[in-house]
Amino acid sequence: MTSQSTTRNKLLQELPASLRAEVVNHIHSDIIKNVIFFRDKGAEFLYASLPLVRRCNLPAKEILYKEGDPAEEVYFIFKGQIKLLSKEKIAFRIYKDGSMFGENDVVYKEARDSTAQS
């Protein structure tokens, strides 16, 4: 977590709960609007989970993770796409804007079973 997000989280903790939820929703309104997973979630869930979201931009053909890597994160695609590649480097699944992926490996504490590439 960056010092900026740590400072922001400390400031949020000092606000009344209703205002805190409103601020979190405002800060992350683009994610709530564009990522299907977050659209129907309640204020408490959004307040608890959205500050944990770390944004990153990947250039084309960048490897996000490799087959066999430990699964420690779930991914949400705000814009663009991610391809899951087999051992033979063949794309067998493509995730696009608004998608979520990687959750099964995290939940079942399994290593990544494919390579993810932007």
UniProtKB/TrEMBL annotation:
InterPro entries cross-referenced by the UniProt entry: cNMP-bd_dom, cNMP-bd_dom_sf, RmlC-like_jellyroll
Record domain Cyclic nucleotide-binding: where: 11-118
Membrane-crossing residue ranges in chain numbering: none
Superkingdom as given in the UniProt entry: Eukaryota
Listed CDD domains: CAP_ED
Signal peptide extent: none
One Pfam family per UniProt: cNMP_binding
PANTHER family: CHROMOSOME UNDETERMINED SCAFFOLD_10, WHOLE GENOME SHOTGUN SEQUENCE (PTHR47823:SF9), ION_TRANS DOMAIN-CONTAINING PROTEIN (PTHR47823)
Protein name: Cyclic nucleotide-binding domain-containing protein
Protein species of origin: Euplotes harpa
Organism taxonomic ancestry: Eukaryota, Sar, Alveolata, Ciliophora, Intramacronucleata
